[in-house]
Amino acid sequence: MRWIGNENGLAPDPTWSTGSCEMGNGGHGPLPQGGDPDAPDWCPAEVDSTLQANDAWFWLPPALNPLNSLAALVESYHASRGRNSNWLLGLSPAPNGTLAPQHVALAEQPGRPATPRRRRARRAP
Q: Which DSSP string corresponds to the chain?
């Protein structure tokens, strides 16, 4: 895995799964953010984003830092998964070790279908 170079939830377009996971580490030189289509090594990209607004990776009381909107999370998802990258969504536990119910509810939303699906009754032939 290689870090895409930002924590704003957006992958470059295009993003290749090939490149060197060592580039950018230990003086090997910078890896182009979108990878290298001619590189022989498989090293998929990872896009980081946070559930809380303002790139807050650690828990803050909701009064101090709101959550990102569902629209912002869906946009981040499409701008990462839709651009050939893994999407890492940071969830921050509260000081007591639990996840706030409103955090869990929001994190579940992008995976739910926008409209309920109804099964059609099959007619006998």
A: -EE-S-SSS---SS--SBS-TTTTSTTS-PPPTT--TT-SSB--EEEEEESBSTT--S---TTTSPBPPHHHHHHHHHTTGGGTEEEEEE----TTSPPPHHHHHHHHGGGS-SS---PPPPPP-
Q: Are 45 and 85 in contact, with CB atoms under 8 Å apart?
A: yes
Please give the Cα distance from 65 to 47 (Å, whole number).
22
For the entire predicted model, the pTM comes to 0.74
pLDDT digits (tens, 9 = 90+) for 17-42: 987 776 545 444 555 678 888 888 88
Residue with tokens 């090997």: 28
